[in-house]
Amino acid sequence: MSELPSTSYALLGLLSFGRELTGYDLKKWADSILRHFYGSPAMSVIYTDLKRLEEQGLVAARDVPTDEVRHKRVYTITPEGRTVLAQWVRNSPVETPSLKHAVAFRVWLGDLVEPERLTEIVEEHRTRTEAVLEELRRMETTTDPGLVYPRLVIRWSQRYYENERAAADQLLRELSVLTKRK
Amino acid sequence: MSELPSTSYALLGLLSFGRELTGYDLKKWADSILRHFYGSPAMSVIYTDLKRLEEQGLVAARDVPTDEVRHKRVYTITPEGRTVLAQWVRNSPVETPSLKHAVAFRVWLGDLVEPERLTEIVEEHRTRTEAVLEELRRMETTTDPGLVYPRLVIRWSQRYYENERAAADQLLRELSVLTKRK
DNA sequence: GGGAGCATGTAACGGGTTACATGATTGG
DNA sequence: CCAATCATGTAACCCGTTACATGCTCCC
Question: What residues of chain B lie within 8 A of the CB of A143, using their CB?
Fold first, then answer.
Protein backbone atom coordinates (compact mmCIF):
# COMPACT_ATOMS: atom_id res chain seq x y z
CA MET A 1 0.00 0.00 0.00
CA SER A 2 1.73 3.10 -1.21
CA GLU A 3 1.49 6.54 0.31
CA LEU A 4 -1.52 8.75 -0.17
CA PRO A 5 -1.14 12.47 -0.84
CA SER A 6 -0.92 14.33 2.43
CA THR A 7 -4.25 15.99 1.76
CA SER A 8 -5.92 12.61 1.96
CA TYR A 9 -4.45 11.99 5.38
CA ALA A 10 -5.73 15.38 6.44
CA LEU A 11 -9.23 14.42 5.35
CA LEU A 12 -9.05 10.99 6.92
CA GLY A 13 -7.77 12.67 10.05
CA LEU A 14 -10.73 15.02 10.22
CA LEU A 15 -13.13 12.14 9.62
CA SER A 16 -11.36 9.98 12.21
CA PHE A 17 -13.13 11.92 14.94
CA GLY A 18 -16.22 10.01 13.92
CA ARG A 19 -18.55 12.64 12.56
CA GLU A 20 -20.38 12.42 9.27
CA LEU A 21 -19.21 15.35 7.18
CA THR A 22 -19.71 16.95 3.77
CA GLY A 23 -16.86 18.24 1.66
CA TYR A 24 -17.96 21.68 2.66
CA ASP A 25 -17.85 20.80 6.35
CA LEU A 26 -14.37 19.38 5.93
CA LYS A 27 -13.15 22.57 4.32
CA LYS A 28 -14.56 24.68 7.14
CA TRP A 29 -12.99 22.52 9.79
CA ALA A 30 -9.65 22.37 8.03
CA ASP A 31 -9.72 26.15 7.68
CA SER A 32 -10.44 26.64 11.32
CA ILE A 33 -7.73 24.46 12.79
CA LEU A 34 -5.53 22.41 10.42
CA ARG A 35 -4.63 25.55 8.54
CA HIS A 36 -2.60 26.77 11.47
CA PHE A 37 -0.13 23.91 11.53
CA TYR A 38 -0.67 21.63 8.55
CA GLY A 39 -2.36 23.71 5.85
CA SER A 40 -5.86 23.54 4.48
CA PRO A 41 -6.51 22.07 1.03
CA ALA A 42 -8.58 23.88 -1.59
CA MET A 43 -12.21 22.85 -2.04
CA SER A 44 -11.49 21.34 -5.41
CA VAL A 45 -8.90 19.00 -3.93
CA ILE A 46 -11.24 17.99 -1.17
CA TYR A 47 -13.97 16.88 -3.55
CA THR A 48 -11.66 14.99 -5.87
CA ASP A 49 -9.79 13.41 -2.99
CA LEU A 50 -12.98 12.28 -1.32
CA LYS A 51 -13.99 10.58 -4.53
CA ARG A 52 -10.69 8.75 -4.71
CA LEU A 53 -10.82 7.79 -1.05
CA GLU A 54 -14.26 6.37 -1.62
CA GLU A 55 -13.03 4.26 -4.55
CA GLN A 56 -10.28 2.98 -2.31
CA GLY A 57 -12.80 2.07 0.33
CA LEU A 58 -11.23 4.35 2.93
CA VAL A 59 -14.33 6.49 3.31
CA ALA A 60 -18.00 5.76 2.74
CA ALA A 61 -20.44 8.19 1.20
CA ARG A 62 -24.12 8.56 1.69
CA ASP A 63 -26.62 10.93 0.10
CA VAL A 64 -28.77 12.87 2.51
CA PRO A 65 -31.73 14.87 1.21
CA THR A 66 -31.62 18.53 2.18
CA ASP A 67 -35.04 19.27 0.70
CA GLU A 68 -37.58 17.61 -1.59
CA VAL A 69 -35.31 17.66 -4.61
CA ARG A 70 -31.73 18.23 -3.48
CA HIS A 71 -29.29 16.30 -1.40
CA LYS A 72 -25.78 16.45 -0.01
CA ARG A 73 -23.05 13.84 0.23
CA VAL A 74 -21.90 13.01 3.71
CA TYR A 75 -18.76 11.03 4.33
CA THR A 76 -17.61 8.76 7.11
CA ILE A 77 -14.32 7.00 7.61
CA THR A 78 -14.40 3.22 7.14
CA PRO A 79 -12.59 0.75 9.40
CA GLU A 80 -10.05 0.27 6.59
CA GLY A 81 -9.63 4.02 6.37
CA ARG A 82 -9.00 4.17 10.07
CA THR A 83 -6.44 1.39 9.81
CA VAL A 84 -4.59 3.04 6.94
CA LEU A 85 -4.50 6.35 8.78
CA ALA A 86 -3.34 4.80 12.04
CA GLN A 87 -0.63 2.85 10.22
CA TRP A 88 0.55 6.04 8.59
CA VAL A 89 0.65 7.97 11.85
CA ARG A 90 2.48 5.13 13.54
CA ASN A 91 4.93 3.95 10.91
CA SER A 92 5.51 6.42 8.15
CA PRO A 93 8.73 8.42 8.34
CA VAL A 94 7.94 11.76 9.91
CA GLU A 95 8.73 14.53 7.45
CA THR A 96 10.63 17.42 8.95
CA PRO A 97 8.32 20.37 9.43
CA SER A 98 8.52 22.80 6.57
CA LEU A 99 8.13 26.51 6.95
CA LYS A 100 7.76 29.13 4.28
CA HIS A 101 8.02 32.45 6.01
CA ALA A 102 7.74 35.31 3.54
CA VAL A 103 8.20 37.85 6.32
CA ALA A 104 11.46 36.37 7.57
CA PHE A 105 12.65 36.14 3.99
CA ARG A 106 11.98 39.83 3.41
CA VAL A 107 13.79 40.77 6.60
CA TRP A 108 16.69 38.63 5.44
CA LEU A 109 16.83 40.87 2.36
CA GLY A 110 16.40 43.97 4.49
CA ASP A 111 19.22 45.88 2.81
CA LEU A 112 17.09 46.19 -0.31
CA VAL A 113 14.37 48.26 1.30
CA GLU A 114 13.96 51.13 3.70
CA PRO A 115 13.81 50.05 7.35
CA GLU A 116 10.53 51.95 7.60
CA ARG A 117 8.92 49.74 4.98
CA LEU A 118 10.36 46.63 6.62
CA THR A 119 8.85 47.78 9.88
CA GLU A 120 5.45 48.07 8.24
CA ILE A 121 5.74 44.53 6.91
CA VAL A 122 6.63 43.11 10.30
CA GLU A 123 3.86 45.12 11.94
CA GLU A 124 1.32 43.71 9.55
CA HIS A 125 2.58 40.25 10.35
CA ARG A 126 2.25 40.96 14.04
CA THR A 127 -1.33 42.06 13.60
CA ARG A 128 -2.19 38.92 11.68
CA THR A 129 -0.54 36.81 14.34
CA GLU A 130 -2.64 38.52 16.98
CA ALA A 131 -5.76 37.60 15.05
CA VAL A 132 -4.71 33.96 14.89
CA LEU A 133 -4.10 33.95 18.62
CA GLU A 134 -7.54 35.35 19.22
CA GLU A 135 -9.01 32.59 17.09
CA LEU A 136 -7.06 29.93 18.94
CA ARG A 137 -8.18 31.28 22.29
CA ARG A 138 -11.81 31.06 21.25
CA MET A 139 -11.21 27.60 19.87
CA GLU A 140 -9.74 26.42 23.12
CA THR A 141 -12.85 27.37 25.04
CA THR A 142 -15.22 25.86 22.50
CA THR A 143 -13.45 22.55 21.93
CA ASP A 144 -14.82 19.46 23.66
CA PRO A 145 -12.57 18.78 26.69
CA GLY A 146 -12.79 15.10 25.79
CA LEU A 147 -10.68 15.72 22.71
CA VAL A 148 -7.43 15.52 24.60
CA TYR A 149 -5.03 15.49 21.67
CA PRO A 150 -6.65 18.25 19.63
CA ARG A 151 -6.60 20.39 22.76
CA LEU A 152 -2.94 19.60 23.23
CA VAL A 153 -2.27 20.84 19.73
CA ILE A 154 -4.38 23.95 20.19
CA ARG A 155 -2.21 24.87 23.13
CA TRP A 156 0.88 23.94 21.15
CA SER A 157 -0.29 26.31 18.41
CA GLN A 158 -0.97 29.06 20.90
CA ARG A 159 2.56 28.76 22.14
CA TYR A 160 3.80 28.75 18.55
CA TYR A 161 2.00 31.96 17.62
CA GLU A 162 2.87 33.62 20.90
CA ASN A 163 6.48 33.04 20.01
CA GLU A 164 5.79 34.39 16.55
CA ARG A 165 4.40 37.54 18.09
CA ALA A 166 7.25 37.94 20.54
CA ALA A 167 9.75 37.42 17.74
CA ALA A 168 7.99 40.09 15.69
CA ASP A 169 8.20 42.49 18.64
CA GLN A 170 11.88 41.75 19.00
CA LEU A 171 12.42 42.44 15.31
CA LEU A 172 10.50 45.70 15.56
CA ARG A 173 12.76 46.82 18.39
CA GLU A 174 15.87 45.96 16.42
CA LEU A 175 14.52 47.66 13.31
CA SER A 176 13.78 50.83 15.24
CA VAL A 177 17.44 50.98 16.22
CA LEU A 178 18.47 50.60 12.59
CA THR A 179 16.00 53.26 11.52
CA LYS A 180 17.28 55.82 14.01
CA ARG A 181 20.88 55.10 13.17
CA LYS A 182 20.27 55.86 9.50
CA MET B 1 5.67 42.65 -14.92
CA SER B 2 4.07 39.54 -13.48
CA GLU B 3 5.24 37.59 -10.48
CA LEU B 4 8.11 35.16 -10.63
CA PRO B 5 7.92 31.80 -8.89
CA SER B 6 9.09 32.13 -5.32
CA THR B 7 12.13 30.00 -6.07
CA SER B 8 13.38 32.70 -8.42
CA TYR B 9 13.17 35.30 -5.68
CA ALA B 10 15.09 32.98 -3.43
CA LEU B 11 17.87 32.74 -6.02
CA LEU B 12 17.86 36.46 -6.71
CA GLY B 13 17.96 36.97 -2.96
CA LEU B 14 21.04 34.82 -2.57
CA LEU B 15 22.72 36.54 -5.48
CA SER B 16 21.76 39.98 -4.14
CA PHE B 17 24.59 39.73 -1.63
CA GLY B 18 26.89 40.35 -4.55
CA ARG B 19 28.87 37.15 -4.91
CA GLU B 20 29.38 35.25 -8.15
CA LEU B 21 27.87 31.81 -7.63
CA THR B 22 27.30 28.54 -9.45
CA GLY B 23 24.02 26.63 -9.29
CA TYR B 24 25.77 24.25 -6.98
CA ASP B 25 26.89 27.07 -4.68
CA LEU B 26 23.36 28.41 -4.59
CA LYS B 27 22.02 25.03 -3.55
CA LYS B 28 24.54 24.73 -0.74
CA TRP B 29 23.81 28.18 0.55
CA ALA B 30 20.05 27.70 0.35
CA ASP B 31 20.41 24.41 2.19
CA SER B 32 22.44 25.97 4.93
CA ILE B 33 20.19 28.90 5.74
CA LEU B 34 17.09 29.50 3.59
CA ARG B 35 15.94 25.97 4.27
CA HIS B 36 15.23 26.86 7.87
CA PHE B 37 12.66 29.52 7.16
CA TYR B 38 11.86 29.62 3.47
CA GLY B 39 12.65 26.22 2.02
CA SER B 40 15.40 25.17 -0.33
CA PRO B 41 14.61 24.35 -3.96
CA ALA B 42 15.80 21.16 -5.63
CA MET B 43 18.89 21.33 -7.81
CA SER B 44 16.85 20.74 -10.93
CA VAL B 45 14.74 23.80 -10.25
CA ILE B 46 17.79 25.91 -9.58
CA TYR B 47 19.35 25.15 -12.93
CA THR B 48 16.18 25.66 -14.94
CA ASP B 49 15.30 28.82 -13.02
CA LEU B 50 18.74 30.30 -13.53
CA LYS B 51 18.39 29.76 -17.25
CA ARG B 52 15.06 31.53 -17.25
CA LEU B 53 16.35 34.39 -15.10
CA GLU B 54 19.19 34.81 -17.53
CA GLU B 55 16.79 35.02 -20.48
CA GLN B 56 14.88 37.66 -18.57
CA GLY B 57 18.06 39.60 -17.98
CA LEU B 58 17.77 39.39 -14.21
CA VAL B 59 21.01 37.47 -13.79
CA ALA B 60 24.14 37.32 -15.93
CA ALA B 61 26.11 34.16 -16.57
CA ARG B 62 29.78 33.68 -17.28
CA ASP B 63 31.76 30.53 -18.01
CA VAL B 64 34.83 30.08 -15.86
CA PRO B 65 37.34 27.34 -16.74
CA THR B 66 37.96 24.91 -13.91
CA ASP B 67 40.70 23.01 -15.79
CA GLU B 68 42.07 22.78 -19.32
CA VAL B 69 38.88 21.32 -20.72
CA ARG B 70 36.03 21.93 -18.29
CA HIS B 71 34.29 24.99 -16.99
CA LYS B 72 31.55 26.08 -14.67
CA ARG B 73 28.82 28.67 -15.00
CA VAL B 74 28.89 31.45 -12.48
CA TYR B 75 25.98 33.81 -12.04
CA THR B 76 25.65 37.36 -10.84
CA ILE B 77 22.58 39.48 -10.31
CA THR B 78 22.08 42.29 -12.82
CA PRO B 79 20.92 45.81 -11.90
CA GLU B 80 17.51 44.91 -13.37
CA GLY B 81 17.44 41.77 -11.25
CA ARG B 82 18.19 43.81 -8.19
CA THR B 83 15.42 46.24 -9.05
CA VAL B 84 12.86 43.49 -9.63
CA LEU B 85 13.79 41.84 -6.36
CA ALA B 86 13.69 45.07 -4.39
CA GLN B 87 10.32 45.94 -5.89
CA TRP B 88 9.00 42.56 -4.89
CA VAL B 89 10.27 42.84 -1.34
CA ARG B 90 8.86 46.32 -1.03
CA ASN B 91 5.52 46.10 -2.80
CA SER B 92 4.26 42.56 -3.27
CA PRO B 93 1.56 41.42 -0.86
CA VAL B 94 3.21 39.46 1.93
CA GLU B 95 1.91 35.90 1.91
CA THR B 96 1.01 34.59 5.34
CA PRO B 97 3.66 32.19 6.55
CA SER B 98 2.74 28.62 5.85
CA LEU B 99 3.64 25.75 8.11
CA LYS B 100 3.36 22.05 7.45
CA HIS B 101 4.10 20.34 10.70
CA ALA B 102 3.81 16.58 10.37
CA VAL B 103 4.67 16.12 14.05
CA ALA B 104 1.91 18.40 15.30
CA PHE B 105 -0.49 16.69 12.91
CA ARG B 106 0.37 13.28 14.32
CA VAL B 107 -0.08 14.52 17.85
CA TRP B 108 -3.44 15.92 16.82
CA LEU B 109 -4.38 12.37 15.82
CA GLY B 110 -2.89 10.99 19.02
CA ASP B 111 -5.87 8.81 19.81
CA LEU B 112 -4.95 6.56 16.91
CA VAL B 113 -1.62 5.46 18.31
CA GLU B 114 -0.07 4.41 21.59
CA PRO B 115 1.21 7.34 23.65
CA GLU B 116 4.58 5.58 23.74
CA ARG B 117 4.89 5.72 19.99
CA LEU B 118 3.77 9.34 19.97
CA THR B 119 6.46 10.06 22.54
CA GLU B 120 9.07 8.52 20.26
CA ILE B 121 7.93 10.69 17.38
CA VAL B 122 8.13 13.87 19.44
CA GLU B 123 11.51 12.85 20.82
CA GLU B 124 12.87 12.37 17.34
CA HIS B 125 11.57 15.79 16.45
CA ARG B 126 13.25 17.26 19.49
CA THR B 127 16.56 15.70 18.50
CA ARG B 128 16.33 17.09 15.00
CA THR B 129 15.48 20.50 16.40
CA GLU B 130 18.57 20.36 18.59
CA ALA B 131 20.67 19.65 15.53
CA VAL B 132 19.22 22.66 13.72
CA LEU B 133 19.98 24.84 16.72
CA GLU B 134 23.55 23.64 16.76
CA GLU B 135 23.83 24.52 13.08
CA LEU B 136 22.37 27.98 13.65
CA ARG B 137 24.76 28.65 16.52
CA ARG B 138 27.72 27.81 14.33
CA MET B 139 26.29 29.92 11.57
CA GLU B 140 25.95 32.91 13.84
CA THR B 141 29.64 32.85 14.72
CA THR B 142 30.77 32.37 11.13
CA THR B 143 28.55 34.98 9.47
CA ASP B 144 30.10 38.31 8.54
CA PRO B 145 28.99 40.82 11.22
CA GLY B 146 28.45 43.31 8.41
CA LEU B 147 25.49 41.29 7.19
CA VAL B 148 23.10 42.91 9.62
CA TYR B 149 19.83 41.55 8.27
CA PRO B 150 20.93 37.97 7.74
CA ARG B 151 22.23 37.98 11.30
CA LEU B 152 18.90 39.32 12.48
CA VAL B 153 17.18 36.40 10.80
CA ILE B 154 19.66 33.86 12.15
CA ARG B 155 18.78 35.03 15.64
CA TRP B 156 15.10 35.02 14.73
CA SER B 157 15.49 31.40 13.60
CA GLN B 158 17.30 30.48 16.78
CA ARG B 159 14.42 31.82 18.76
CA TYR B 160 12.01 29.94 16.53
CA TYR B 161 13.73 26.60 17.00
CA GLU B 162 14.26 27.20 20.70
CA ASN B 163 10.52 27.58 20.97
CA GLU B 164 10.10 24.44 18.90
CA ARG B 165 12.30 22.56 21.34
CA ALA B 166 10.56 23.95 24.41
CA ALA B 167 7.19 23.06 22.91
CA ALA B 168 8.40 19.53 22.27
CA ASP B 169 9.53 19.27 25.89
CA GLN B 170 6.15 20.49 27.03
CA LEU B 171 4.43 17.90 24.84
CA LEU B 172 6.67 15.17 26.19
CA ARG B 173 5.69 16.09 29.73
CA GLU B 174 2.02 16.04 28.87
CA LEU B 175 2.37 12.74 27.04
CA SER B 176 4.09 11.16 30.01
CA VAL B 177 1.06 11.99 32.11
CA LEU B 178 -1.20 10.38 29.54
CA THR B 179 1.00 7.32 29.37
CA LYS B 180 1.00 6.79 33.12
CA ARG B 181 -2.72 7.30 33.37
CA LYS B 182 -3.35 4.59 30.83
C1' DG C 1 -31.97 43.20 -4.49
C1' DG C 2 -27.91 41.33 -3.27
C1' DG C 3 -24.38 39.31 -0.56
C1' DA C 4 -23.07 35.55 2.40
C1' DG C 5 -23.21 30.90 3.36
C1' DC C 6 -24.26 26.07 1.83
C1' DA C 7 -23.12 22.74 -1.59
C1' DT C 8 -20.53 20.33 -5.52
C1' DG C 9 -17.95 19.80 -8.98
C1' DT C 10 -14.44 20.28 -13.68
C1' DA C 11 -10.46 22.09 -16.23
C1' DA C 12 -6.23 24.35 -16.89
C1' DC C 13 -2.04 25.27 -15.32
C1' DG C 14 2.31 25.24 -13.04
C1' DG C 15 5.67 24.90 -9.48
C1' DG C 16 8.44 21.63 -7.48
C1' DT C 17 9.89 16.85 -6.37
C1' DT C 18 12.02 12.51 -7.75
C1' DA C 19 14.32 9.85 -10.89
C1' DC C 20 17.52 9.49 -14.48
C1' DA C 21 22.07 10.59 -16.62
C1' DT C 22 27.05 11.78 -16.63
C1' DG C 23 31.64 12.56 -15.11
C1' DA C 24 35.79 14.62 -12.76
C1' DT C 25 38.48 15.19 -8.42
C1' DT C 26 39.75 14.56 -3.65
C1' DG C 27 40.43 12.33 0.68
C1' DG C 28 39.94 8.51 3.96
C1' DC D 1 38.98 1.71 -3.98
C1' DC D 2 35.02 3.93 -2.78
C1' DA D 3 32.39 7.59 -0.91
C1' DA D 4 31.76 12.34 -0.88
C1' DT D 5 31.95 16.60 -3.15
C1' DC D 6 31.79 19.42 -7.21
C1' DA D 7 29.12 20.23 -11.30
C1' DT D 8 25.11 20.34 -14.72
C1' DG D 9 21.39 19.17 -16.69
C1' DT D 10 16.57 16.52 -18.71
C1' DA D 11 12.15 14.05 -18.19
C1' DA D 12 8.23 12.36 -15.90
C1' DC D 13 5.01 13.13 -12.82
C1' DC D 14 1.73 14.95 -9.56
C1' DC D 15 -0.01 17.71 -5.91
C1' DG D 16 -2.36 21.67 -5.26
C1' DT D 17 -3.93 26.34 -6.64
C1' DT D 18 -6.84 29.28 -9.47
C1' DA D 19 -10.41 29.90 -12.44
C1' DC D 20 -14.69 28.52 -14.14
C1' DA D 21 -19.45 26.87 -13.53
C1' DT D 22 -24.04 26.32 -11.10
C1' DG D 23 -27.77 27.04 -7.96
C1' DC D 24 -30.33 27.22 -3.60
C1' DT D 25 -31.61 29.65 0.90
C1' DC D 26 -31.41 33.01 4.35
C1' DC D 27 -30.92 37.50 6.07
C1' DC D 28 -30.06 42.52 5.81
Answer: none
